[in-house]
Each structure stands twice: as C-alpha cells, then as structure tokens.
Amino acid sequence: MQVSPARYSRNIDWITVLLYTVLVGLGWVCIYASSYSPDAPNNPLNVMSFDKLMAFNWFKQLLWIGTALVLIVILLVVDYKAYDTLAYALYAGMIVLLLVTMVVARPIAGSRSWLELGPVRLQPAEFAKFTTALAASRFMASINLRYQNWRDQLVLAGITLLPPLLIVASNESGQALVFGALLLAYFREGMSPLILLLLAAAGIILLLALLVPKLWLVLAFTVILVVVLGINRRILRHHLPLAVGVWVSVIGMVIGVDFFYNKVLQPHQRQRIEILLNPSSDPLGKGWNVTQSKIAIGSGGLLGKGFLQGTQTKFDFVPEQSTDFIFCTVGEEFGWMGSLVVLGLYLTLLWRIIYVAERQKSVFGRTYGYCVACVLFFHITVNVGMTIGLAPVVGIPLPFFSYGGSSLWSFTILLFSLLALDAYRKQDLVR
C-alpha cells in the first residue's frame, strides 16, 4: 500500500524537525557571534562582494544550511526501503572512499582526512558513521543473527571497527572514537552487558596505570586474585586457569601501557591526556585551549555578557572558537541559563530520537535509531566535556552548532534518514 504525500507529511515527526531547526538556528547565531568583529561593517551584505563574504564562517555556514535543506528533501523523498537494501553497498563504498582519502588527501594539521573538491572540503570520516550505522543495523536485523554465536559477534565487530581503523590510519583519532558509541545501541538489541563492563574495566585499568606506580598496581591486583581464590574455593577448583588468565591480561595491560603511550600515541595525543590529568601543568602552552575555554564559560556567569558582547571569543583568546570550542560562545554570551537551555534542547532531541526508535516496527529501524542517538550523545558529551576540562580535546564537533559542512551534513543525514524510516513505520520492512 502506497502512502499519499499528505499522509506521509503527517507521519513525519515534526517535533524532531522543530528541535533540529532550533538547534541549527542557534548554532548559526553562535558561529556569527564567535566570528563577529566590532570593526566590521554593520551590514556587510550592502558593502561586500560575494568573494569577501566567503571569508566569514557565518556566511559559509549559511550556505551549508541551505544545502542541508536540499539534502533533507532528498532524504525524505527517497524510497524508505533503500536504506535497508543499500546498507551494505553504501558501507562498502565508504570503505573505498576512506582508502582513497588516505592516499590522495593532502596533510592538514597532520591529518589526511579531507577530500578537496574545488573550493569545497569534505571529511569522509563524518559520513562513515552513517554508513556504519546502516550496515550494523542491517546485520543485526538479519534473521540468523544470534548474539550468543561468536561468529556473529566477530562479524559485527568487524563492521564496526574497520572504518575507525582506517580513520586512525589517516591520523584522525578523534573521529574514530565516536564509533565506540555504537556499542550502546548493540546493547539495546541484546549484546551481553559483560562486553561493556570489560571495556569499562579496561579503561579504568589503563587510567590507573598512568596515575599509579606500576609496582603498586601489580601488587594490588595480585592480592585481589589471592583474596578472591581464598574466599571462593569454587573458582580455585574449577576456574583457576580463567582467573590466572584474567590476572595475566590485567598485568599485561599495566606493564604495556607505557609502550602504547610512548610508541603508539602521537605527541599531540599524549599532550591532551597529560592536560586532562593535570590541567595546571602548562596553562600557557599545552593547556592554553582548555584554560581559555573555561575562562570564557566561567566569565558568562548566570545570564551571560549578552549577544556579541563576549571578550574571550572576540579577541581570539579561545582557539577554534567556531568549531571545536563553539560551546564557549554559548557560555560566555548567554551564561549558565543559556547553556542550560542548549543542553536541555539536546536532551529533548535525544529523548525524542529514542522515542522514535522504540516505535519502529522493524529491528533495522529500531537499531538504526539507537545508533543515531548514541552517536549524537557521544558528540555532545565529549565536546561539552572538553570545553570545561572534563574530557580530552579530541577535536570532534558539537552537533548542529560547530562550523563545518561535513559535520552539518553528516548529522542531518543521520537524523533525517531515521525520520524517513519513521514516516513509513507502519509499512514494516521485510527484516
């Protein structure tokens, strides 16, 4: 049964569309504020040529927003079955594109992650999140998928890990971390929570290995093993090899963290970790970004300094103020209340996406919806966290706020592909 255009329009989740519109609009306002100069003409459209306007991030973002609107129409018009049918083909095409990017892209800030098409630069890593979410959702919706089957788990791990490995090979570690958020979506569909617990435990152990002397950690974990074996004799009798294997793995992580830290991580990545662990170690050098970011947000107070009245951003104290550190403009000019409103809008959007995901009739649609929510949640949490010193500076954008066409397009594609599936939710996909 075909859905008429009028009925299709009614089926679109307009609440989500409204939230998207408000966030994109506020993002553009903040980009304008972050690049505003008191010495610039009051009405640049009257006195500047198009070429001169292209020097302003706020004008270029306006063009990206216009193209995003065209993209939205295409996403909503395309046959909803195409997202399921073409999932693997789109994923394979993106893998090829990532490989091509590694070869042909010229280094920018040490990273080979941007393709230049004339005056336009696009970052394929941004769009890889969309294709990976589609492919993983398609695989998890397959009839024979069983999470207890280790082969299925390996295939799912391969689908998820291949794009970030290629992204890391292009020296773009920040974007690669985002793919870890997809694990939360897999957990919703039945993945064992033990995997999440093991990953969390591994992260804690690695962090402790950076903060605590290694000898003390080795002794502590050895004592824990002895105590557990002494208390639970069943483990001693039946699971001793497994317990010893876990202990060896933990000790190996503790001892091997130095090799990973010094030989695998790039110098700038080590600096980010050092600043996170000790923010006051070099406030005028490696810690300059985070220090100025916190000053800008703190100076806003309760209600902010007012629109276009920020000083930290106006005088370029905050680096990357229209991209990675765009949240500083929110905190400085609109204060604690403005920041609360923006975060409230994000939370409402995440809640709405989860609501939309849960009402899907297909496993594919539901899983994809949770993938969208998890990717957005990771971006929001890490970006805001790094501006206030609670997360390392990994260079990922704030959804719908940070300047950049690739990020705006990628988040738009993620969100409106879900809305396209949701509009046809009553016509269940085959899977």
Automatic annotation (TrEMBL):
The topology of this chain with respect to the membrane is: Multi-pass membrane protein
**Pfam families named in the record:** FTSW_RODA_SPOVE
- Keyword field contains Metal-binding: no
**The organism's taxonomic lineage, starting at the top:** Bacteria, Pseudomonadati, Bacteroidota, Cytophagia, Cytophagales
Q: Which GO terms describe its biological process?
A: cell division; cell wall organization; peptidoglycan biosynthetic process; regulation of cell shape
Assigned GO CC terms = cell division site; plasma membrane
- GO molecular function ontology, one term from the record: lipid-linked peptidoglycan transporter activity
Highest taxon in the source lineage: Bacteria
Q: Which PANTHER family match?
A: CELL CYCLE PROTEIN (PTHR30474), PEPTIDOGLYCAN GLYCOSYLTRANSFERASE MRDB (PTHR30474:SF1)
TM ranges are 12-35, 55-78, 85-105, 154-187, 194-212, 218-235, 242-261, 334-355, 367-394, 400-421
Q: Which InterPro entries match?
A: Cell_cycle_FtsW-rel_CS (IPR018365), FtsW/RodA (IPR001182), RodA/MrdB (IPR011923)
Look up and give the organism this protein is from: Hymenobacter cyanobacteriorum
Q: What is this protein called?
A: Cell wall polymerase
